[in-house]
Amino acid sequence: MRRYFARKVAIYLLTFFVAVTLNWLIPRFMPGDPVLRMLTRTSVSNPDAIAPMREYYNNVFGLDVPLWRQYLNYWAELLQGNMGISVWLFPAPVTEVILDAVPYTLALLIPSILLSWYAGNKVGALAARRKWLDNTVLPLGYALTATPYMWIAIVLAWSLAIIAGVFPVAGGYSFDLQPSWSLVFFNSLIQHWFLPFLSLFLVAFGGWAIGMRNMIIYELEADYANYLEALGAPRRLIRRYAFRNALLPQLTGLALQLGVLVAGALVTEIVFGYPGLGRLILMAIQNQDFFLLQGAFLFIVIGVLIANFVIDIVYVLVDPRTRTGMTGGAA
Amino acid sequence: MSDLAPAAREEAAPAAGGEAVSAPAVPVAAGPVAAAQPGARRTRDALHFALRNKKVVGGGIVVLAFLALGLIAPLFYDYGHSEYVGPQSSGPSGEYWFGTTTFGQDVFLQFVHGIRSTFLVGLLGGGLAALIGMTIGFVAGYVGGLVDEALNMLTNIVLVLPALAVLIILHTYIGITSVPSQALFIGIFSWPWVARAVRAQTFSLRTRDFVDLARLSGMGSGAIIRREIAPNMSSYLFMTFILLFGGSVLFAATLDFIGLGPTGVMSLGLMMNNAVHWSALQLGLWWWFLPPGLGITAIVGALYIMNVGLDEVFNPKLREM
Amino acid sequence: MRTRPRYIAALFTAVLLATTACEGGDSGSSGNSSNGGQYPRNETLYTSGSAWGPPTTWNPIVPGYATGTVGLVYEPLFIFNPEKLELEPWLAEKGEWSADNKTYTVTLRDGVKWSDDKPLTADDVKYTVELGKIKAVPYSNLWNWLASVEATDQRTVKFTFSDPRVQEWENWLYENAIVPKHIWESRSEADITTHKNEKPVGSGPYVYQAHAQDRMVWKKKDGWWAEKALNLKVAPTYVVDIVNSSNEVALGLLTSGRLDLSNNFLPGVANLLKGDFKVKTYYAEPPYMLSANTAMLIPNTTKAPMNDVAFRKALAESIEVKKIVEGVYGNIVKASNPTGLLPVYDQYVDQATVSSSGFTFDTNKAKATLAAAGYKDTNGDGKVEDKAGKPISLKLIVPSGWTDWMEAARVIAEGAQAAGLNIVAEFPDAAALDDARTAGKFDLLLNNWTGVSNTPWTYYNYLFQMPVQAQQFSANFSRYQNQAAWELVQKLSRTPSSDPAYKTTIAELQKIQLTEMPAIPLWYNGMWAQYTESAWTNWPSEAAGAPKDFPSTWNNMWELGSIKMLTQLKPVSSK
Amino acid sequence: MSLRVDNLKVYYRTLRGDVKALDGATFTVADGEIMGLAGESGSGKSTLSKSLIRLDTRMRLVEGGVELDGKPLPIGDQDAMNAFRFKEVSLIPQYAMSALNPTRKIGKMISELLGARGVKYSEIKPELERRLDLVGLKREVLNNYPIELSGGMKQRMVLVLSTLLNPSLLIADEVTSALDVSTQRAVAETLVEFRDREFVKSMIVVTHDISLVYQIADTIMVMYAGKLAEKAPADVVVNAPRHPYTQLLISSLPEVGVRYADRKLAGIPGSPPGLLNPPAGCRFRDRCPLAFARCVEEPPFVEVDKNHHVACWKAQ
Fold it and tell me: Where is the ABC transmembrane type-1 domain (chain B) (predicted)?
């Protein structure tokens, strides 16, 4: 087990290293100049001012030292949680800007991932058991999982927020509220959260449901299931085993789907004007705010890595094969 | 947006436990039932079952219908998809089947052009991802050893990097302005799960008698992979491609939607982007934003359902389910 | 394993319960409940359309500050009245030129206080102006022609000029806000431009209340100087400026009554006005909006064939502006006068020159102009080649995501193609476009950085500014070099509006602009403003008796009089 | 009579029609008898062994009946059959290596299985432990996951589990094919021992390995192309087979003990007929060196000697 984790951690660290390096590398060798951006922003019209201001901003963005130093500085700063200064939102530090947005994104992602996974697996398992349920869940699941995230968001926003007016159309909480520990505020948070959550949940749910349904069907054909049947075990017991065993690949699937879900959250936020990372990234793109974009990218990478690691741990907890296979001893 | 849940199954065990874990193994093609039959008969059998499988036939009809629509329909128009041809913001009518945009563009024409881009990006992106994934999977699985370790590492890294985030970064720096280049980038980041699955499959095929025989007869590694291993996984590879196709389409729609799509071309994601930006939701121009999403859902959904059908065709055990 | 799913199930039910409870409850937030932390609807003004990113700085010296930082908190000495085209004293009681125009004396109002109760004095003004000596301060070029500034007493500041640019100075006077010396002087030079300046201390009617990712909240302060001095009172106790996530979201907020004033570009708003959405604009009919700035097609005159005036002329003739106005904008903008001068400057337009040298849309004429100048289709592809017979292929760039301009660019390209000019529209990211524009690495682009100001000088300075440098940050993106024109612009800057030479100089510049076409004026971008009357009435409008202030929250509009809009608003009386 | 099979026909449904995989088998297995069942793949031996415990979804009982200890075995009725499985008929599958649920501890799985069959685990545990001792497995294996056991251990575990309820008939399907030689021998011996201790009354051992069959089986039954060819005491089949097919089968082995491993018989030209539409008459006649005119009639499976049944005109 130790070897298993050591290997995993090594891969994650390497991925992180690659991501950071890539992240550092690209803007420095691509066209586009944050200093120029700032000069444009401040509309310098005085020719004499350009040179000193260029020098000044070079210093602010840490671009006034040799490349190798910039790279080391980048790491040093990063390890202190410092991802530089945003160009678009100058002079706000990138970390600060991102940390303001992250809670919203996490509030969408974590519940939608966990709940869709849970509900999808349950319903998928049920579907594999009953023909009529299978005939309804399967097409619905395929339709949902084939639906682009933003489209389901668009349809929900249009029908429930704009036409029916049941839900608000934008924002993280009502614009007439100040954050407080009140029921009103909490309600407002939930209301604004619900539709973006729902659109993420639905698409992911469809995927898990059909995934589980198909997995179970394969599991029911597995040798242990055949053996149990030959020994006259009731279907219920076999299905219970099949469900549990089918959960494992679904868990792996969860790790694989994280990136997709993050992407879904980003576009969903855009549709609902939800103040999370998605909008921030969109604006960073449009403003070529490399530093903010890098920060957001790293943040997502770190988030996905951590989530992967958590899933690895859970996997080891639920799958005796990884656990015992590595330690080689009986429990 | 690549690998949707159906893929997670094939992927399954190697992801978490490595070889030590006996997988709920890759279910298709390489199974003893299929292998026992001679090749030609197998193909005939598969075709026979495929044509009788409701999922394959139904899904296939939907996909082909959309393909035909995308290929043929634009030929009947003598104006472009961006031209202002009709009244502004008018609903579906006999003349403009899907209504018009806020500028008076023909939504139906945009839709059929969008379907073209959708298929193009699916074919190219899915094809490229399949090519990369299979090559890496075959080589890693067949050659093994250090090569396998290195490729495995590469696969794991690309797998964990969130593709959309990477593509956004790349787009910002490089700029992606055509459907093929968009497909290229999607392909480059969608292959890892394929590589893993193919590697696991190859691993198990590598020790089979017929591969040993080929090796003894002095066949080179490349030839063995091409002539002995790949054909034995052909049905599986085909299904993988279908999943990658769907994934590419969804991925491209996402990119187009956030404004990172190609320019000068119409795509379904771009239609949604335009509709949203021009307040179609608030102004109630539902005919502008419903068709593109429905189109994607129908095409990708049909492909996925076809995939399940094919799974049943290639894996006789499942036929009765 | 057995307990975990149950736990998740419980969580799931809890969340569902909570959400369904909410669905059943109050869906809107316009209720009159007086729960803690809720801004009372009838005392709160909701605005949007100005901020596109989370509020992160309140520093009035560098652009990028939160909406209202200058205007609601920091104030200039004068504000500009675009209706009368004259400066109105604001923090200053008056300002006077000496007879030789060499010095300018500002007298401050009595009793103006900062929000920390310290008096605003001549020292603060001197300090603010002298900040311009720091190169990183955007107005540092002021000191190229300003010699000195001295505070002669508590309320009097005297400016001595080395080069009295009357128009430019008056522009400075209302565009720049005075900051409190006692707070700023402790900051280092670098800090002046990088400090976030949270909880800004200003002289204006509002103080900082709160901010979040998607909003900026200002609260009215007691004892704003203008209450006594000008009998002006801002009506809303709270101003909540909503950070735009997108224009369409703003439209949704507006139609659902959650927004009072939207300064967003709302496509299709013409339909809304006709419909029953209770949305109002300045004009009741097209173009609905006041004109804010001129959208211009900028040719890069350092490149062939854009360096050829005949080519530019043909290009101008090929563009069907009407199609942009009607098709793209649904008539919420107006086609520009060929001179590009905004409607507020109508009195300066020389109609004779316009009718003799102005251009109009005419594809055939464009073709003729091209043919006459030697641009012919020699390879038979339907597009003209340059004089040497090489194919012309030009790109018109507008920022990706600027949907209206993207559409407009397509229309322009279409028109050009019809006239035989091979121009295609491309949409790089906004910032990439900035780079291209700054560095002169483009063929054609759209730009509208010249808006309503105290004088057409700003417009002509924008068109003709010299010398042309490697990087052009704010003006003359065409890189058009015409020494005579530039001298006229400088002359204009030194000419007081009352001088008869003022108008004739403008006329001369018009002539050069129309014959040389350094840039092609297309349409007037609107001062997008949509309001609802669910909570506030008496919005600016063309109607008789209605306020005429600019209805805008855009930064730099406050000092063009928008601040007065807040004093005119009337709350809808609560039941 | 422990097991009586009477004219059993089980067909596979395929698209082209029924594959007559088991086309009328009539035989008996006596109490205490270990019967080896041999034949090429496609001979119907797996179909026969499967149909005695669980028809898979593509198999169809066409006609015939099975009696176990005098009671009819409802092999065509999945649900009714359930009551007999494990308790009356049990199976050691070919895939014993993967027959145990990988994510359950073995003891737990057994207890759940027994519970579902209405047997108290606590009551049977002492017996279970005794049998584990008997096959040389530590009792701790019950606390292990299958992956922690070696192949041989798993094989023995399955052996113990399958026979735990003392079934009347045990079907051992290719139980040794995945094992090394020494383990094979041990397993084979265990099978005999289980019979001797009367954990099971009778046994059908389906195998490729004639030498193994020869060691442990009392009788051997040979099948060819869906039909029974010959059934006789083990030494008779090996030393004095009467059916030409059996003769060729035995003689084509260089010596007893070499596996013929499911390959086509090298020594016999031709291949078995397709079972979709098998020719009338003796199904071996196309390959049979002794074939003569009468072979177009189907030879009956008759007792030619005591306990020696053969389906061949020449043998009668």
Answer: 115-307
